Amino acid sequence: MPRKSDLLTHGRRLNDLGSALVESVYEAGGDDNDARRVFSDEWLWKQLGLLVMYKLKLEPGHFPSEIQTPELIPEGWTVVEDVEPSEFNVSDLEFISFLEGEEQSVASKEMRQRAVTLLGNLGLCDGKRMIACQNEIPKDLHGKSILLPGTVLRKPGWGFFIPCLCYGGVCWTLDFRYLGFGVGANEFRLARRK
Fold first, then answer.
1. Phi, psi of 95, rounded to the nearest 5 degrees
2. d(Cα 121, Cα 116) in Å, to the nearest integer?
């Protein structure tokens, strides 16, 4: 899910949105007073937000992974959380642990929270890029999995999963890890820009 601060930094898009809302008020027969209300009526803002979220939940293809990597989503699974793809070169990534001190493992929920703090919250779209450039992933990661906790998928009847990249002896492949399990240091890493 995008952070509020990420959305607020896109001032031009917000300005475009405001202009589009005002134009739609005029096209529907409204006047200047109706257009001003778009920016001053807090209740209307809340209703617009609810309408947008309702519409997004009805239409598939609103998460980046559903749009950019639908072929990687297992049939019948649903994306329930996602992050915008990051801009990076695979060779510029570092692969870090999410554990603190003497910890041997943490719950998946805690790992996901730490991934955000550590700037290692990559998602499925980022994983696709990493697979495409897998020769740039350090060989010392063979035998470990690279978690992509920015995307959460729901498998009907099973629960929630996150994507991860696993080295299978020949190449890196996509897999999915059940969020009900804890996550240990020796097996898993997060990827982030250096």
1. -115, 115
2. 5
Q: Where are the extended beta strands (E) located within the chain?
A: 78-81, 93-96, 105-107, 145-147, 152-155, 159-167, 172-178, 182-184, 188-193
Cα(115)–Cα(10) distance, rounded to whole angstroms? 23
Domain spans of the chain, in order of start: 4-58, 64-193
Give the pTM: 0.68
Distance from C-alpha of 190 to C-alpha of 96, rounded to nearest angstrom: 5
- The pLDDT tens digits of the residues spanning 34-53 come to 778 777 777 667 667 666 66
Q: Are strands 188-193 and 145-147 parallel, antiparallel or unpaired?
A: parallel
Lowest mean pLDDT among 34-38, 77-81, 146-150: 34-38
Burial 92-102 (b: 16+ CB within 10 A, else e): ebebeebbeee
Amino acid of residue 55: K
Do the beta carbons of residue 2 and residue 83 sit within 8 Å? yes
